[in-house]
Amino acid sequence: MPRSHKLSRTDADFNAIGSSLKTYRLNAGFYPTTEQGLEALVHKPDTAPIPGRWTKIADRVPTDPWNREYRYRRFEGGDPSDFELRSAGRDGIFGTKDDNIYHSP
Q1: Cβ-contact 57, 41 below 8 angstroms
Q2: Contacts of 82 (CB under 8 A, 6+ apart)
Q3: CA quadruple 26, 30, 33, 36: dihedral positive or negative?
Q4: pLDDT, tens only, 25-73
Q5: Under DSSP, is residue 11 helix (H, G, I), strand (E, B) or coil?
Q6: How many Cα atoms within 13 Å fall on the side-chain side of residue 104?
Q7: Which parts of the sequence are annotated with region: Disordered (predicted)?
Q8: In the chain, which end has fewer C-beta atoms inside a 10 angstrom radius, N or C?
């Protein structure tokens, strides 16, 4: 898959994962914690906060076009609706210039 297609897919994935996280929030009343991660879309968390209303939203934890799991982080201390999704990009290393990043609107 050419690089531009991979970046387009990453953008589409970010939108889809963002929508899944919003659905989780509608059901649970909050976003998963950073520690619960995107796994909370697949399996009900067993660490606090445990959602009273939980529904399986995904069959597996989403992976980027390089077949690596996306990194999810909920910002603590600020607006509880703020989160970040990140792909390590082609080099597979988080924190380098080829990372792709999405911040919740």
Answers
A1: yes
A2: 74, 75, 103, 104
A3: negative
A4: 999 999 999 999 999 999 999 999 999 999 999 999 999 999 999 999 9
A5: helix
A6: 19
A7: 86-105
A8: C
